[in-house]
Amino acid sequence: MSAVLNTNTASLWAAKNLLGAQNRLAASVERLSSGLRINRARDDAAGLGVANSLTAQINGANQGMRNLNDAISMVQTAEGAIAAASEMGQRILMLATQGANGTLGTTERQAIIDEMEELLSSINSISARTKFSGNSLLNVATNASATGVAFSAQISNEAADKIDLLNPAFFNIGTGANSQATALNTAVSTLAGAITTANFQSVQTAANAFVVNLGTQRALLGAYQNQMDYTLANITELSSNLSSARSRVIDTDYASETAALTRGQILQQAATAMLAQANQMPNVILTLLK
Question: In this structure, what CATH number is given to the domain that contains residue 130?
Answer without folding.
Answer: 1.20.1330.10
